[in-house]
C-alpha cells in the first residue's frame, strides 16, 4: 500500500522526509506544485521540485528554506558586475539543475522524465511527479498590478496586497502521467495534503483538470495537514495572504477552503477545533527536527487509517 502526498516546497518536503523514515521509498508518491516555475535568465526553474530533491537527498539549505547547503555564488556575483538581473539568487550548484533541465526540455524531454532522472541520480527513491508537464504559472492580481509569482514572492517579498490569484495555463494543462493513476489506485492507502500554502501551493495542483475529480473519486481518505499553527502560519506569506483574501487565519478557514475534498484534517494542538465539522486529529504539527517530521508523518498516517 502506498501514500500519495500533494505538496509545495518547504513544508511539504519536511512531511515527505518524515514519511521516508517510516515507509519504504517505493511506497511514497509526491505530486508537486509547479505553479512557481518560471523562466529566468533563459533557464527553467522549478523551485518546489528542487526543494524536494534537495531535502530528500540531504542537500537542502534548511536555514534559508530553498537552495543548497554550502552553496557558492560566483555566477551571481559575476552576473551582477555585468549588470544582469540579480533579484532571484541562482547559486553555482543550483545552476546545474536549471541548465540541465532547460537543455533537456528544449530537446523534448518532459519535466516528469527529467525530474525522475534527477531523483534517480541523487538516490531519491520516492516517485516525484510534477503536477503537469505543461506550463502552469501562478500569478497574482495585487494593489501593485498583476505580478508573476516569483516577482511577487521574491522580488517584492510578498509586500503587495493580493486581490486574486490565477493559474495561467491550468485549464489547458494535462496532469502528468501517473498523477491521477496514483490518486485513484486501489493500492493507495492514504492521500495527504501537505502543510503547504493552500492558495499558492495546493490550489495550482487542484486547478489542473482531473486532479480534483480524482481526489473526490479516490477510495483512499484525503487528509490535510494544517499549515496554521497557533493562529499563525508556520512560514511564509500564508497568514498575510489569508487576511488579504478576507479569511480568518485559522484551521477552520483552511478546512472551509478545501471543503468536501477532505475526509480528515490534522490540526495543531494549539488551535481550537470546535468549529470544524469534519473528523480531526490534533497533535504538535511543528516540524523543526527530523524526529518532529517523523512524528507528524506517523500521526497523519495513523489518523488517515482510522478513516478508512
Ligand atoms: N527565494 C527567495 O526568497 N530569494 C531567492 O533569491 C530565491 C532563489 C531561488 C532559486 C532557486 C530556487 O529553486 C528557489 C529560490 N527561491 C528564492 C525560493 C522560491 O522561489 C520560493 O520560496 C518558492 O517558489 C516558494 O515555494
Ligand atoms: Ca474521497
Automatic annotation (TrEMBL):
It is an enzyme of class 2 (transferase). Keywords: Magnesium, Transferase. It comes from Sphingomonas natans. This is 2-phospho-L-lactate transferase. Transmembrane segments: none annotated. Pfam families: CofD. SUPFAM superfamilies: CofD-like. It comes from the Bacteria.
